[in-house]
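ok, trying the design again with the full structure, not the truncated one.
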């Protein structure tokens, strides 16, 4: 895919997620990502942080989801679209088994995994990917339509 076919301007951000949660998102099982602050809806590059969440590796929900998959870190592994950002009402049932109380829940859809990881540095906050990084990512997704 040529860079010219992608929209111009500030249409996509990067989101860095610790493993094994990045892989849980890529499997389609984890459709809610927890954050301390709200995020705007839109497209994001799914970046696996260099840090592994060791505690999460012992959770049965995570173990069942990632079974047999490699946990790549320090790379963009896919793209997704944030369709909603909300907090659950006080004392209400969580919106997902992945949702943490009092966190902002980013609802993810249209998740597309890359065939090959693209090494990249991420950040805790929403980050703007470089044109070179976008080109390397979208070369692997020739049918991508934002």
């Amino acid at each position: 895919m040529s860079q010219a076919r992608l929209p111009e301007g500030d249409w996509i951000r990067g989101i860095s997620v610790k493993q094994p949660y990045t892989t849980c998102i890529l499997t389609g099982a984890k459709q809610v990502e927890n954050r301390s602050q709200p995020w705007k809806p839109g497209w994001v590059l799914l970046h696996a942080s260099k840090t592994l969440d060791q505690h999460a590796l012992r959770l049965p929900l995570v173990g069942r989801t990632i079974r047999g998959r490699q946990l790549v870190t320090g790379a963009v592994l896919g793209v997704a679209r944030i369709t909603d950002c909300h907090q659950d009402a006080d004392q209400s049932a969580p919106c997902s088994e992945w949702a943490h109380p009092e966190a902002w829940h980013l609802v993810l859809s249209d998740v597309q995994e890359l065939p090959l990881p693209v090494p990249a540095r991420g950040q805790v906050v929403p980050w703007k990917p470089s044109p070179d990084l976008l080109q390397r990512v979208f070369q692997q997704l020739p049918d991508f339509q934002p």
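Keeping the full-length input from now on. The two ends are 13 Å apart (CA to CA).
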